[in-house]
Fold:
Amino acid sequence: MNQVLVEICLRVRDIEATLDFYTNLFDFEVASRREFPENKFDLIYLNSPGSSVQIELTYNYDAEPYEVGNGFSHLGVTVSDLEKMHEICKASVYETGELRGLSGGTPTYFFVTDPDGYRIEVKRAK
Structure:
């Protein structure tokens, strides 16, 4: 049986701040947006250029703050210029970690945190 990962769903509290994070800090594009006011939720699907996996942002109108589970670690994104993206993230309002390398080697990644507390691992494209 052929299986393909097609989406990752994140529940978010502030949809505009989250959209700003993914579309302005990264190059994600809104693929579709569906509003269900009668059921008090919206769905926004984001595409990442070069990937067939979408992020589904679920915004529940009156939800209490979510707790990021301890079983979920992070999303991963690759970039062609790691140092430039690190500078962009450090200059933003988002919590950004230092450049790191495995076992103290050459830096290959860093983490940035989105408005809902989800961590994004930004890795150097190979």
